[in-house]
Amino acid sequence: MYLILKLPTLALHLIRDERWSAMRNTIISLYQPSHLAGLIPTMQRCIERAADAIPAAAAQEHGDVDLSDLSLKLATDVIGQAAFGVDFGLTVTSGGCEAAEFVREHVHSTTTLRMDLSAPLSVALGLVAPALQGSARRLLRRVPGTADWRVARTNDRLRARVDEIVAARHRERGRDGDGEGARRDFLSAVLDARDRSAALRELLTPEHVSALTYEHLLAGSATTAFTLSSAVYLVAGHPEVEAKLLAEVDAFGPPGTVPTADELQHRFPYLDQVIKEAMRFYTVSPLIARVTSQQVELGGYKLPKGTWLWMAPGVLARDAASFTDPGTFRPERFDLAGEEQRRRHPCAHIPFGVGPRACVGQRFALQEVKLSVVHLYQRFVFRRSPRMESPPELQFGIVLSFRHGVKLVAVERRVGTA
Ligand code: HEM
Predict the structure, then answer these.
(1) How confident is the model at residue 115 (pLDDT cuts 50, 70, 90)?
(2) What is the pTM of this model?
(3) Domain spans of the chain, in order of start
(4) Is 311 in the pocket of ligand 1 (CB under 6 A)?
(5) Which of 352, 357, 369, 400 to mutate to test the pocket of ligand 1 (most atoms within 8 A of CB)?
(6) Which site in 178, 237, 386, 392 is 20 to 30 Å from 159, CA atoms measured?
(7) Which atom, in ligand 1's list, is nearest to the CA of 31?
(8) Three-state DSSP class for 177?
(9) Which of 26-30, 310-314, 397-401, 413-417 has the lowest mean pLDDT?
(10) CATH of 3-412, one of 2.70.70.10, 1.10.630.10, 1.10.10.10, 1.10.510.10
């Protein structure tokens, strides 16, 4: 939903019915535990590289590290590897990479598009009169200087770059045989699936493949980055939470011990609570959309076919009926054995959406965030910088972000001490 601005109408979250289920079924295997477990070494390499960059980044910025910026680079690098099989190298301080310009544009557009008054007019119109949005956007994108025009230009450039990457992969496969098994990235898996089935070849045209790949880059980077940086920011302000988290990380093994996917799931119950609570405290996707495919009655209202519905997970997350004292950061409220958790409605906390269209990348994102937190806290503790505003100013955009970033002081840990 939150990508509506920037994606061609071929991407997963914008298509419906048969085509949607065929495409979702094709890619869902990439999010199964066995595939995700195989991504741990790739994710870990990117995470270690990002952590290595922290001291140098801090030295340039009066001792502060901008964790939002670093997390976005990290998440984009991870998606680059997982979706395209390309190393964007964003967290590498020196040396360039062939895709650097593409990614710079991506990072820029991800962090600057907004839904406030500076947002494209067509987006605001889409919220009040969705039926008019399409024609308004087509018109406004031709008017130089409007936000719609700027978005369209960035959009076109990014899509052209993705098309280039996909076309290059097609050529590479033609040259080296089908290459099956050689690569484990998303793009290769979709191309393999196409090669195996004539029906899928018809459904997954090259344009759909580009759109799906592009969607992954956008859907998986700013969301995951925000989640990571907000969790570390919140922990930095709550010493009692930090102490429990460090105890769990240290009990797992000496610095450098890399958890398997299974260990990440079962050996870090407090980390689970911290991440859930951070996602509740700052809900990254402000709105989730649905359109009725037939007339339905909901809560006493008759909704005709074609009605747009907007859910606001961040509003649910602040409901005192589900979350005692909702303005307090308290990970223990998600303790599986706790009373508050037991009596809460299962849909009270839905940062990844809900139902058959819920986020396909949920496990991927959680694996990446957990792996990052474990590695970061094996090496550092973080303190809020006096140079950062408090409370942080939030920017309500396609996804939530910190308007001025998250500035932290990273203190290196010595083995066995905080
Ligand atoms: C913390 C990180 C993330 C959050 C909070 C998040 C949140 C969401 C939400 C709220 C939706 C809409 C769900 C609905 O309509 O019910 C969504 C959809 C989607 N997300 Fe995520 N997401 C995250 C990470 C990722 C990652 C890492 C990927 C891919 C690698 C991804 C891929 C997608 C896709 C493809 C859809 C559209 C699914 C469909 O329409 O079938 N997301 N996400």
Answers:
(1) very low
(2) 0.85
(3) 3-412
(4) no
(5) 352
(6) 178
(7) 30
(8) coil
(9) 413-417
(10) 1.10.630.10
Binding-site residue ranges for heme:
359
Instruction: Report which listed range, 22-26, 52-56, 333-337, 358-362, is most confident.
Output: 333-337
CB crowding 61-98: b at 16 or more within 10 Å, else e: eeebbbbbbbbbbbbbbbbbbbbbbbbbbbbbeeeebe
Q: What is the dihedral of CA 313, 107, 92, 370, to 10 degrees?
A: 10
Of the candidates 14, 214, 229, 186, the residue with the CA atom closest to the CA atom of residue 105: 214
pLDDT in tens, 129-174: 555 556 666 666 667 766 667 667 766 776 677 777 777 877 777 6
**pLDDT (average), residues 103-120:** 51
- pLDDT score for 107: 60
CA–CA distance, 200 with 355 (Å, rounded to integer) = 24
Distance CA 220, CA 223 (A): 6
Residue 144 identity = P
Note whether 383 and 408 are within 8 A (CB): yes
Instruction: Quick: pLDDT tens for 245-296.
Output: 999 999 999 999 999 999 999 999 999 999 999 999 999 988 888 889 899 9
Backbone angles phi, psi at 303, to 5 degrees: -110, 120
Is 137 buried (19+), middle (13-18) or exposed (0-12) by CB count in 10 A? buried
Indicate the range of 41-45, 148-152, 296-300 predicted with least confidence.
148-152
Q: Which amino acid belongs to residue 73?
A: K
Measure the CA–CA gap between 339 and 55, rounded to whole angstroms: 42
12 lines ligand 1 (CB under 6 A): yes
CA 14 to ligand 1: nearest atom? 40
Q: With residue 171 as reference, give the H or E element that holds it.
A: helix 147-175
The answer to whether 289 touches 312, Cβ cutoff 8 Å, is no
Burial 316-333 (b: 16+ CB within 10 A, else e): bbeeeebbeeeeebbbeb
Q: How many helices (H) and strands (E) does the chain have?
A: 18, 9
Residue in the block written with tokens 């939903």: 1
Mean pLDDT of the chain: 82
In terms of pLDDT, which residue wins out, 321 or 27?
321
From residue 113, how far is each of 106, 126, 295, 398 by CA, in Å? 11, 15, 34, 7
Q: 114 pLDDT band (50/70/90 cuts)?
A: very low
What is the whole-number distance in angstroms between the Cα of residue 220 and the centre of ligand 1? 7
